[in-house]
């Protein structure tokens, strides 16, 4: 073990929790650097999902034990997600298929409160999931404006100041970019939206696996994330500020509960996956110390952020030393940057690079990762986008050295 990293033994020892880390491909252990597209799952989460099917599988609101257990599980999971996000109660937490589907549902509901000429602000840096649902509202006469992305990977806050105004009804902004790792200035976004009375909706999908979230401090009206990015299964999560969802006209059945948090949850939820969401947050909390679950989660996320940043620094420095590598986005000298690095290699298409790495058992992603507007603005679309390596809590310096060694070979070929 690298001597500098020995103080993270609490994290490194937990690699054994992830059965998929024992897989090999072409004779090599698999190095999963594809976390931004979805993380691996620890045994504890897998057990919770299969345990639900083994013991408590039922639909909700029945007068028998497995149904009652299912109701209790969903309520408990809302509560633990609220703890994960720093929210006051589980009643602010709704579940859905994924973040994109929840955002579409929400955009339809919010559209019913808007009038022609109203404006929504989105950003050039965001994932399409936080752009597309809002862009569809153009059909209803809503003006959709974009906050510009600067070549350095940061949003142009002067542009935000210039574009936000009295007609702005909502700003949809990510907490962190899944392409460049940029952490956006959401405190400023809140200040500016509050001034004009606009709603603030935050996409926390890429931020949630890497940093603690405190909705009391950030004060968004809506915040969304996705459990499969933080060691859980495929479940979308929506936080709505108390009272807000109640006031919206969501698509729903007559038979459905008409209050928050249920009124945006159409049909039967994925109960087993919700058991997995619960276990994934318990799992994260198990890395931290504290007298209550919230303290443990925050402490754990601080430790994870620090560890991932240290591993990310090695990746950043190593990439910088390889001839022909261009990295995109901000330098790695600030702790509030997500450990996600996108780069190109001179003379090579991103797909070629990821393909060669894939054959060696190193999982990176290539292309635009649905942050297609940012890739367009950076002039990288015609070149096949970028190769992306993302650090998760189970990645090691050794895996980074393996990646760097392969990239050195590719750069010389
Ligand atoms: C930043 C960001 N936002 C939104 C999404 C969409 O999430 P989901 O797959 O849950 O719809 C992703 C998925 O990659 C993402 O990285």
Description:
With 413 residues, the chain is an alpha/beta fold. It has 2 domains: 3-41 and 301-412, Aspartate Aminotransferase, domain 1 (Alpha-Beta Complex), CATH 3.90.1150.10; 46-285, Type I PLP-dependent aspartate aminotransferase-like (Major domain) (Aspartate Aminotransferase, domain 2, 3-Layer(aba) Sandwich), CATH 3.40.640.10. The protein has helices spanning 9-12, 43-55, 65-85, 99-111, 132-135, 157-163, 186-196, 215-218, 271-285, 293-320, 350-359, 372-377, 397-412; strands spanning 24-25, 28-29, 31-32, 93-96, 119-123, 143-147, 168-174, 199-203, 222-226, 236-240, 325-328, 340-345, 362-363, 365-367, 386-390. The strands form 4 sheets. Strands 4-10-9-8-7-5-6 form a 7-stranded mixed β-sheet, with helices on both faces. A 4-stranded antiparallel β-sheet has the order 11-12-15-14, with helices on one face. Helix 7 (186-196) links the parallel strand 7 and strand 8. The longest helix has 28 residues, at 293-320. The model has no long low-confidence stretch (mean pLDDT 97). Bound molecules: pyridoxal-5'-phosphate. Residues 37, 98-100, 127, 129-130, 174, 178, 203, 205-206, 226, 236, 370 line the site of pyridoxal-5'-phosphate (PLP).
């Amino acid at each position: 073990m690298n001597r500098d990293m020995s103080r993270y033994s609490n994290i490194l020892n937990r690699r054994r929790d992830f059965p998929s880390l024992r897989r090999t491909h072409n004779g090599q252990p698999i190095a999963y650097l594809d976390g931004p597209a979805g993380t691996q799952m620890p045994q504890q989460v897998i057990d919770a999902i299969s345990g639900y099917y083994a013991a408590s599988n039922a639909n909700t609101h029945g007068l028998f034990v497995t149904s009652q257990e299912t109701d209790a599980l969903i309520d408990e999971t809302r509560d633990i997600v609220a703890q994960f996000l720093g929210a006051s109660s589980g009643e602010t937490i709704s579940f859905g298929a994924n973040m994109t589907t929840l955002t579409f549902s929400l955009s339809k509901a919010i559209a019913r409160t808007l009038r022609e000429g109203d404006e929504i602000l989105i950003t050039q840096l965001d994932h399409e999931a936080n752009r597309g649902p809002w862009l569809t509202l153009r059909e209803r006469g809503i003006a959709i404006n974009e906050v510009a992305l600067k070549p350095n990977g940061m949003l142009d806050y002067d542009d935000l100041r210039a574009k936000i105004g009295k007609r702005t009804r909502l700003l949809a902004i990510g907490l962190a970019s899944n392409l460049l790792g940029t952490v956006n200035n959401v405190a400023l976004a809140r200040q500016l939206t509050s001034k004009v009375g606009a709603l603030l909706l935050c996409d926390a999908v890429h931020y949630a696996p890497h940093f603690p979230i405190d909705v009391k401090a950030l004060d968004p009206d809506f915040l969304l994330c996705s459990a499969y990015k933080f060691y859980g299964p495929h479940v979308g999560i929506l936080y709505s500020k108390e009272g807000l969802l109640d006031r919206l006209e969501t698509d729903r059945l007559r038979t459905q509960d008409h209050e928050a948090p249920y009124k945006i949850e159409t049909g039967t939820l994925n109960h087993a996956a919700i058991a997995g969401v619960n276990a994934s947050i318990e799992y994260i909390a198990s890395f931290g110390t504290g007298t209550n679950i919230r303290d443990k989660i925050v402490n754990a996320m601080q430790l994870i952020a620090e560890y991932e940043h240290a591993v990310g620094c090695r990746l950043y420095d190593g990439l910088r030393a390889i001839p022909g590598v261009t990295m995109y986005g901000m330098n790695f000298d600030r702790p509030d940057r997500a450990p996600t690095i996108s780069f190109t290699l001179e003379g090579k298409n991103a797909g070629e690079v990821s393909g060669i790495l894939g054959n060696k058992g190193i999982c990176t992603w290539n292309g635009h990762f649905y942050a297609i507007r940012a890739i367009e603005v950076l002039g990288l679309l015609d070149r096949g986008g970028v190769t992306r390596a993302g650090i998760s809590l189970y990645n090691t310096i050794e895996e980074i050295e393996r990646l760097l060694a392969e990239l050195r070979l590719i750069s010389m070929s």
